[in-house]
Amino acid sequence: xxxxxxxxxxxxxxxxxxxxxxxxxxxxxxxxxxxxxxxxxxxxxxxxxxxxxxxxxxxxxxxxxxxxxxxxxxxxxxxxxxxxxxxxxxxxxxxxxxxxxxxxxxxxxxxxxxxxxxxxxxxxxxxxxxxxxxxxxxxxxxxxxxxxxxxxxxxxxxxxxxxxxxxxxxxxxxxxxxxxxxxxxxxxxxxxxxxxxxxxxxxxxxxxxxxxxxxxxxxxxxxxxxxxxxxxxxxxxxxxxxxxxxxxxxxxxxxxxxxxxxxxxxxxxxxxxxxxxxxxxxxxxxxxxxxxxxxxxxxxxxxxxxxxxxxxxxxxxxxxxxxxxxxxxxxxxxxxxxxxxxxxxxxxxxxxxxxxxxxxxxxxxxxxxxxxxxxxxxxxxxxxxxxxxxxxxxxxxxxxxxxxxxxxxxxxxxxxxxxxxxxxxxxxxxxxxxxxxxxxxxxxxxxxxxxxxxxxxxxxxxxxxxxxxxxxxxxxxxxxxxxxxxxxxxxxxxxxxxxxxxxxxxxxxxxxxxxxxxxxxxxxxxxxxxxxxxxxxxxxxxxxxxxxxx
Length: 550
Hints:
- It is a single chain.
- The chain is an alpha/beta fold and 550 residues long.
- The protein folds into 3 domains: 1-134 and 450-519, 3-Layer(aba) Sandwich (Rossmann fold), CATH 3.40.50; 178-337, no CATH class; 520-550, no CATH class.
- Helices cover 58% and strands 18% of the residues.
- It has helices at 35-45, 76-81, 113-123, 129-134, 138-149, 152-199, 205-217, 219-234, 240-254, 259-288, 293-313, 318-384, 425-428, 431-448, 465-478, 491-494, 521-533, 539-549; strands at residues 2-10, 13-19, 24-28, 62-69, 89-96, 102-106, 109-110, 124-127, 391-403, 406-415, 423-424, 453-457, 483-487, 499-508, 511-518.
- The chain has a 6-stranded antiparallel beta sheet with strand order 2-1-4-5-6-7, covered by helices on one side. Strands 8-12-13-3-14-15 form a 6-stranded mixed beta sheet. A 3-stranded antiparallel beta sheet has the order 9-10-11.
- α15 (465-478) links the parallel β12 and β13.
- α7 crosses α11 and α12 (318-384) packs across α14 (431-448).
- It is elongated.
- The mean pLDDT is 87.
- This is DNA repair protein RecN.
- Residues 155-185, 328-362 form a coiled coil.
């Protein structure tokens, strides 16, 4: 339940600190006094988006802090799942900075708005006139039935299975699409793969083949160059080797005269050894040269095959062709593997579908059993609220497809008077009737759910007199199970609360501010009397106010 609320620099509120009881609290005030501001502040604590218009002083940050006692509401799993520190007295703080940025904290741990909204659903139900319209929506009607039927665990298991079902169906759809796309390309991919495999490509072979081709294609030119080099090296009288030998002989004669001459002699000796080795290699290369037209043609054909494949696949190396070959091989294999995977997923879908059918049927049966319980309870409460002839029917029909709540399609039918036909609730119920029906629903749900706090925001719209008394009694009865706040304009309801707060505006300097005050017993009599007779309070109104409070 909400035990403390602190608001700073929000809308017309400069500073507000209030403590609340665990019973029924009344909030009254003139239209425009700031009741909606309080709800807006709570909305921010519960995760609604904010903007700079929330700041009273645009230069200062807005801080809203709410303390909730949550030790009786089994929220430890939520805190564990979201990696938050659990505290029996949990503090939620929302800050809006002058820059427009917003921050949120749960027990001083930063949280995002999604986490805050999810936590808020466990803490407060703010019931406004807008939510009364939700009563006409199918999803809300289903939630009511499920609460009475006790479907929460089965529904949670169903929704987990449904999520798995949707995930596999999505995966299956993609694989079937991929298979269809691959099937269209399968023949062409197979052709390309076989063409590459036939080429028998090897890493690095292109440069080797190109070198062999150049050698075989220029045999005569190479032979001529090698033979000329050998002739120049080996000529008996003027050959290079003979000349180097003569240089070596001349230097040997003076090598002993100085270290410099000796070094020159050694270097010439090294040159002679190296050049002699070069000549031997020239001879070997010359001997190995063979004019082989057949080999030249084979090498040329292999190169032309490589060049043709590179042009077709728009690449420049054998390595890139091998990568393409690998990819094509994967695609051809993938098409076969996809069929196996698709069959496996289709089997899983069939199994999950059977599970979903069984769970949806279980949920539907329990809903059907809950219908008479719910209708009896609603009609009983509405009888107290001046609708003794109200009747309800739940039209539950199975659908072909699964949704988040099973396979049921639900229509809530309503008849307000004897002798009138049933019709859709949203079409035939008036605003006042919807308010009373929603109050009846909330009162019944209070018996089945463990919501800590409910706020009724002018749910009494369209009612008065004795019906207002009954509405107040029902709200007060609910406060024995949960914390109840009622924002009201009706003195009959205002008199039912254990605490009574008044929202009012005041002028301070050049500024208008909204304030919230806990009324004393005497102040409460005056406030209710004013609600009865207006600003000019009469003795009769004061006596009536005292009677209502007693």
